[in-house]
């Protein structure tokens, strides 16, 4: 199926992923197109495609080993797509798939979080961490967010019960936790493993976990595209239970989408491949819907330092 890309999310670490540079057989596939989450409109259907129609708004994750979404058009497997509701802007839609699904799968599928448990959410002001923090709180967890000193306020706004500045505070002060959600790795990950209570779980999204603490579980995983879950996530955004954290919105008018979009602010980087979503705006104007805050944040250049919580 071919889709016209309107907005594409971008994870800075994509430059380091082996799948960015090689296919499943490890053959070089450069020049590669990065960006693997998107919001867009279906423009052509492959033979046998069911459940989607031409012109439909969709969002989701594309295959890691194939060219991505920082392009005007992309070919995507229909099974990786979920319908994007008409009142959700493409920029918001493009910011959700990787962060939202990673947080969900890490907390509930791999971490088996239960109400009343404590969660150490590393990088709590980042794209994944903000989702982890909100979802863990919603499901009854006690969340200790971490990050740099400047991340404290954002982490607390996303719902962290407490915050630890990794550069100045002692991680050991956290005491015992039931679940560590690691987005940083290295020494932070190693020290976090020793904080787990018996029966606790360390979930990592930054590669294999070296620590093997006795009576504790360690898991690393790569997020999977699950359209049904994505629909639940966007439903939460629509009814205000979940906020996406968009840091930088890059306009191709100011910078070509193939350029290296450096990270300049907390949160997700989204590249606006096409102008604003006129359809969604007019739909909201007609209905007078209170969900106005789902509209596009103002477009800025990568040098902007402010971040937006939608
Ligand atoms: N396995 C998977 O399926 C999967 C899925 C999604 C993401 N990931 C990975 O998860 C990582 C996070 O992704 P993201 O999109 O959430 O990135 P992000 O938005 O940059 O968030 C990471 C957060 O952690 C903070 N941080 C990093 N190192 C730190 C340190 N040493 N001390 C204090 N704070 C630190 C960052 O602060 P600064 O920006 O100030 O450094 C940032 O706030 C990336 O490596 C990405 O590749 C993996």
How would you sum up this structure in a few lines?
The chain is an alpha/beta fold. Helix content is 23%, strand content 24%.
Question: Key terms for this structure?
Answer:
Quinone Oxidoreductase, Chain A, domain 1; 2 domains; binds NADP nicotinamide-adenine-dinucleotide phosphate; six-stranded parallel β-sheet; eight-stranded mixed β-sheet; Rossmann fold; 23% helix; alpha/beta; disordered C terminus; 310 residues; 14 strands; single chain
Largest sheet: 8 strands, mixed
Structure ligands: NADP nicotinamide-adenine-dinucleotide phosphate
What are the low-pLDDT stretches, counting only 5+ consecutive residues below 50? 256-263, 277-310
Order of helices and strands: EHEEEEHHEHEHEEHEEHEEHE
> How many helical elements?
8
What is the helical fraction, as a range of percent?
10-25%
Give me the secondary-structure category.
alpha/beta
* CATH hierarchy class name of the largest domain: Alpha Beta
Global outline: globular
CATH superfamily of the largest domain: Medium-chain alcohol dehydrogenases, catalytic domain
Tell me which CATH architecture of the largest domain applies here: Alpha-Beta Complex
Radius of gyration: 19 Å
Q: Classify the beta-strand content into a percent band.
A: 15-25%
Under CATH, the topology of the largest domain can be stated as: Quinone Oxidoreductase, Chain A, domain 1
Characterization of the model:
- The chain has helices spanning 18-21, 90-95, 97-110, 127-138, 152-157, 186-193, 227-238, 278-287, and strands spanning 2-10, 37-44, 57-61, 73-75, 81-83, 118-121, 142-147, 162-165, 177-182, 196-204, 217-220, 245-250, 268-272, 308-309.
- The chain is globular, with a radius of gyration of 19 Å.
- It has two domains: 2-96 and 244-309, Quinone Oxidoreductase, Chain A, domain 1 (Alpha-Beta Complex); 104-220, Rossmann fold.
- The protein contains eight helices and 14 strands.
- Helix 3 packs across helix 4.
- Helices cover 23% and strands 24% of the residues.
- With 310 residues, it is an alpha/beta fold.
- The strands form two sheets. Strands 1, 2, 3, 4, 5, 12, 13 and 14 form an eight-stranded mixed β-sheet that branches. A six-stranded parallel β-sheet has the order 8-7-6-9-10-11, with helices on both faces.
- The model is unreliable at 256-263 and 277-310 (pLDDT under 50).
- Residues 11, 13, 98, 102, 123, 125-129, 147-148, 151, 166, 183-184, 188, 205-206, 222-223, 266-267 line the site of NADP nicotinamide-adenine-dinucleotide phosphate.
């Amino acid at each position: 199926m071919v889709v016209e890309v309107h907005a594409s999310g971008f994870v800075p670490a994509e430059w380091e992923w082996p799948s960015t540079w090689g296919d499943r057989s490890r053959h070089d596939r450069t020049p590669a197109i990065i960006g693997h989450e998107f919001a867009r409109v279906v423009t052509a259907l492959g033979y046998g495609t069911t459940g989607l129609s031409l012109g439909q708004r969709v969002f989701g994750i594309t295959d890691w080993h194939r060219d991505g979404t920082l392009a005007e058009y992309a070919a995507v497997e229909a099974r990786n797509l979920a319908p994007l509701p008409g009142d959700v802007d493409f920029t918001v839609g493009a910011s959700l798939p990787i962060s939202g699904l990673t947080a969900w799968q890490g907390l509930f599928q791999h971490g088996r979080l239960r109400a009343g448990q404590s969660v150490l959410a590393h990088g709590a002001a980042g794209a994944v961490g903000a989702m982890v923090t909100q979802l863990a709180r919603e499901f009854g967890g006690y969340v200790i967010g971490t990050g740099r000193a400047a991340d404290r306020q954002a982490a607390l706004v996303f719902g962290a019960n407490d915050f630890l500045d990794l550069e100045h505070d002692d991680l050991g002060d956290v005491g015992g936790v039931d679940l560590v959600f690691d987005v940083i790795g290295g020494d932070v990950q190693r020290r976090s493993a020793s904080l787990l209570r018996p029966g606790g779980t360390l979930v990592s999204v930054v590669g294999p976990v070296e620590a093997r603490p006795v009576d504790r579980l360690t898991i690393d995983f790569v997020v999977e595209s699950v359209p049904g879950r994505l629909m639940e996530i966007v439903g939460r955004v629509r009814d205000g239970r979940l906020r996406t954290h968009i840091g930088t919105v890059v306009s191709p008018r100011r910078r070509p989408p193939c350029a290296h979009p450096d990270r300049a602010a907390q949160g997700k980087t989204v590249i606006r491949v096409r102008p604003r979503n006129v359809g969604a705006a007019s739909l909201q104007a007609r209905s007078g819907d209170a969900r106005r805050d789902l509209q596009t944040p103002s477009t800025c250049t990568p040098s902007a330092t402010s971040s937006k919580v939608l």
